[in-house]
Every structure is written in C-alpha cells, then in structure tokens.
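Backbone geometry tokens:
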Amino acid sequence: MAKVAKSKALKAVVSACLVSGLLVPLNIQAAGKAKASETYEMTVSPIPKSLEQTDKGFPLNPKVGLVTERGTDPAAIAELKQALKEAGVTTIVESDIKSPNLQAPVIIWLGEFSDPDELKTIQQSTGLEDLVMTKKEGYIVSSKHGTKDKKHIVISGHDEAGTYYGTQTFEQIIVERKGTDWIPEVEIKDWPTMPIRGSIEGFYGAPWSHEDRLRQIAFYGEHKMNSYIYAPKDDPYHREKWKEPYPADKIAELTELVQAAQENHVAFTFAISPGNTITYSSESDLKALIQKAQAMWDIGVRSFALYLDDIDPSLHSPEDRAMFGGDPNPPAAAQAYLLNRFNEEFIKKHNGAERLITVPTDYYQAGTTPYRTRFAELVQSDIIVQWTGIGVVAPTITSQDADKIHAIFKHDLLIWDNYPVNDFDRNRLFLAPLTGRDSDLTPEHGVIGLTANPMNEAEASKIPLFTVADYTWNPEAYDPADSLKRSLKEFAGAAYEPLNLFVEASYATSLNNNREPVSERVKPLIEQFWLAEEAKDSQAVSVAGKALLQEFGKMEQAAKQLREQVDNPNFLKEVAGYLNKLELYGQAGESAVNMVLAGQSGDTAMAAAERMVLHQSMTAINEIPQKLSIGVVPTFLERALNGKNIAEGKKADASSSEVSWLTPNLAVDGNNNTRWASLYTDNQWLSVDLGQVYSIDKVKLYWESAYGKQYKIQVSNDGSQWTDVYTELNSNGGTDEIQFPAVEARYVKMQGIKRSSSWGYSLYEFSVFASQN
C-alpha cells in the first residue's frame, strides 16, 4: 500500500520574542536548558477543551522510554514514533505496562489505561492523579517531572481514536529548539463536541484523483476529523451506472482508500445515488443495490449512504405507480420503502455496520412539505438524515433552524454543509474560514455532526477545511479569523503573508456577506486617488498613487512568492490561473497609476506607454476565466483606460430582485464581484438615475452567467418616457460594450426582452460613459 507523506502539524517554536495572535497561545518562559530570555508560543489545533500549563518543562532526551498496554492503537504508536524521530529522538525503549522499563530519562505512557492497576502504576510513577477520560474520542496529555528524577508524558485516550488524537496533540506541543527539543509542562483534557466531523466528496464536476483522496484522508486524521463520505456526483458508478460493479482497478483504489481511512481513524462512508433510474419496488434493483454494497463491505467499508438528492421525485415506472400511487405522497412512500428494505436486508444483517445515512429530495427547504411529512412518518427512526441548512448553500445554520428541521424530519440530522464547494461557480475559489454556524449545533438540537462539501480543488480545500475541523471539534471556542491564521501558517509556513493576501483575494462568499478584504483595503485609496485626480491636486495624486502602487506591488509579488516558496506542486497547479490573474492585476494596477501620474505631470509619452501596457494587461486578464474577489480593481482599471463610469454610486432601480440581498444598487457600486439579479421572467429591467443630464454614447454590461439574450438600452430625461438607443438580439453574455450616437439623458435602462436561461437577468456592473466629443 502506498504511503502518503503527512504535512507537518503546527508546532511550538522557540523565539526571542513573543509571537501572539493565536487563540490559545502558551507564552511560557522556558526553564532548564532553555535560555531564560527565550519565550515560545505553543498552538494546539483544534483548540482543546481544557489546557493548563506551568512555566516549567524539560528537554526531550534522545533516549525515550515508551510504555504501552496490550492492544494500544497501532496507528497511535506509529504516529508517536514518527513525531519522536522528527524531534531528534534516536532510541526508543519499549515495554509493557505490566512490567514497565523506566530507565530512560523521559518516559512516555501511551494507551487507554482503563484498568485500575495500570492507572495506579502510572500515578505512582508520575505523581499525576486525574488520568480518567470518560468522553468518546477524548484524550489526556500530561507532562511533568515524576519520581526518581524522571520526566513523564502520559497520553491516555478514552478509546483508540482518543489515543490517536492524543498523539496528534503531543506532536504539536513539542517545542523546536536548536539542539534538543523541549516539552512544556502541560495538562490537556480534550474531546470533540460533534460526534461526526469530516467531509463529503459530493460535488459535481471532475472527481478528485486517487492521490488527492489519500492526501485528504491523511489531512483529516491529522486534524481530528473522523468521517469521509465518498459521493462524487460524476463518478458514473456512484450515480448513472450505480447498478454496475466497479472494475478491478477501481476496487483496488477503493480498497487502499478504506485502509488509509482506518489507519487515520476516519470512517469511510460509501454512498450510492440511484434515484434517477431506480425502480423503488423492484426486487432486482434492490438486489443490485445490496450486491454493490456487499462488494464494498468485502473491502472493509462499514458505513453506507443512499442518496436521493437532486432528482426528479416523480415515479416513472408503472410498477412504482401501481404500488405507491395511492399513498398521500407517492415519492416519499417509494423512497422510504427502498431505504427501509435496504436498512433491514443489508445494514441490520451485517454485524458492525454503522447506521444508514440518506439525503431526502427535499433537503434544503425552510419549512415542511407534504413530502417531508410523509418521509418522516415512514422512514425507520434509526436512519440518519443529511440536511444542508436552510438553502442549498446556507449563509447561516442556527440551532433554532436545527430544532425546526429536526421537528419536521424526526430523525437525527447530519449537516451536509455546502461550503467551501464551488461546483456552482467553477471559476471561483472559496478560501475564507467557515462562518455563520451556531456553536450549539449538537445532539441536544438534533444534530450529530457536520460534513463539509469541499471544492473540486483538493489541496486548496484544505485551507477552509482546517477551519471546519476546528469548528466541529470545539465550536464553543471557535474563532474564524484565528482558525484561518493557524491554517495558513500550517499550510505555507514562511509564505504566510503572500498566502494570506491570496486568500483575501479569494474570500467572498454568501457565508461572510461577500466580504472582500483586499477591496476593503484598496477602495478608500482608489477613492482618494480619483478625488485628487479630478481636483488636479498633483501632490495629493502622488501621495495616493504611492499608496496604491504599494498595494498593487503586493499583489504582483504575492503570486511570485507563492510559486517560489510553497512546496506543494498540486496546490500550485490548482491555483495557477488565479495566481496569474492576481499577478496581472498587480501589474495592470501599477500601469494604471503610473499612466495617470504621468498625465498629471504632463509626460504624454510616458502616459501613452503605460496606457499600452495597461491595455495589454487587461487583454490578458480577460483571457483568464478564473475570478478573484477583488471587484473594485477591475473597475479601477476600466476607469483609468476608458474614463469615469458616471453610473457608479448613483441611484439604481429595478423591476424586481431575485432575493432581498441582490439589490439594484449592487450593479452600480463599482465592484464587479457584487450583483443584481431579477425574478425569473423575461420582462425585467434595471435603470440608473445619473443625477443630471449628460451626453452619453456608451454602456457596458458585465453579465453574470444569467444574462440577457435579447434586450434594449433605453434612455430618458424624466424616468417615465423612454427612447430606445440600442437593441441586442443575440448576446453571448460576458461583457457587452455598446456604442451608440451621443444622446442627452439622465436615466439609462436595460430593458430585458428574452433571458438566456430559466434564471432571471443578473448584472455585476451597469456602466454608463459620457461622450468625449
């Protein structure tokens, strides 16, 4: 079996000064061999439930004694030995707790130690009293000077998973120093809040590669996530060809994944989505389903899911209509029949099988439906129901929401969190931390866990998944900003600053109200720059220009630094287009500023040269499909090249808005990452009041994917009587630049005639330009 190299977890580092800003920094003055002037920062991720420390500690001697008990988790032993080797330990003297060898300077006790005699042996040797952990998957890590001048480290788990997680935490508390690494004196008691914590590979588009999955599973183990659900929508054997057995090479890969999951204490759930083609009442289809599951059982799978999401719930077969047509809700009755049969005839007949998981067809609605009511009545009570929150991509998931949905389904809820998934917007990355989830989404509110649906980009997904691991382990202590900071430090090390800038440029999502940290930083500088330029204040333009040049220089350099400093070729391949765009934005921004500054100083030749470079950069930018969430930069570049957009910041109106937050003002806010969207009919419009009459001759429409196939551009001086100045009969979306004979107007409108899809009309920006003649 191929091994996957593990990324090095966050560890304590000795430094000459305090490094602060983490949620649980342990800034302890080292004793013993550590110099008195040295301080260090210790970070454990996810944040433990309880952590106490003193100002003491001891060096990790190259010779260490390891005391285990019979049956100690092999994965925990292997993890501990690897950590010790990386910390410079060259000799490990192993012994059993029934006859412990305590001759080494440092003794590590590793196991569950539930036997009273074993606990007594440890207590007498170490002086540690409270070593009992009663919480599932919980652990204790304690280190202190014991009897007979020995130093002791106890890693005690409630169960095998807890023991394994204890070794993960121990690895993080080791302080790296020149010479001999250092062990701080700590007592950590920790356990997870959510019973199920992990990810679901449930997106549309190209599935992850086998190597991607192996790396993901190792990542989950390192971050105390215990669940991986295999459900890639575009794996044909998962959905379209669900009846067909996997070919031998695929079975071999799945076998390796299952083994890797077991080694990392990750439950591998195999999901099947048969809803598009199955006949619910068919004995042969049920047999095919059981045979498919049996093949997975034979390679070690013990957790199964039957998914019924994203399907037409109508009963297509005459057999199903005959059997379920008289039910109050035939689709719910048919689905419940299948789930219950599979639960009875496969899950309950396999000793050691986990509870069956399903996703109902109505998985995101806010309230009850006839389908939901009947589904809840008929589906067996032990079957787990997955739920996305209210909405497919829920901006918030609250315990009040959970109470409401749990009262509807009357089954344990497992959250299928559609973050950071990007299959609905494939040219975006969502790298912000998980936000908007209440800290008390617990079994008391019907929630037994959360699995996050990642992006198609597996390595990039690790950045937000780190924060998901933090949240699901200890939501009470979860701080999104702090969690993201620790994620980036682990992911990039010395390249933290450029990676942070890249993340800030790939940050906006419905979960954080489409925040754009880069835009928030740059927008005031842009406004100062244009105000100074309009006032022809050369000194103010120069000052504002220098500040902007600094920001654009950071963008350009960040891309270069990440390519040079991040030792993760798979990540760099995934984000290559985004890095290229970030670099080009930086270059284009510098050219735009220099062009304006040259024009202000009267250097027409320099201004012309910079204009040419800016035009070339913008052409290159437009050829890259990937999008960054720094929407004020493109509009800045557009103004530098084509003049002021006189619609920006003006009052906009519309025939409708798809939802309350997609308002018309977002199409004139100077940010092409925000948008207006209409209701789903052809006769929709967006207009802008320019505030006064202008002579205008150009409009630019920056369409979202829901664009107008046919539309008119109309103008008016009173907002009531409209005149057509342009009619488009075959738009292809993207950016429509519309030139027309100059006309005097105060109001400008896009009047829809025909939509390009079943959605409405959606515009990122609606720009209007005054005539230059």
In short: The domain at 12-190 is CATH 3.30.379.10 (Chitobiase; domain 2). The chain is about 35% helix and 20% strand. The first helix runs from residue 74 to 86.
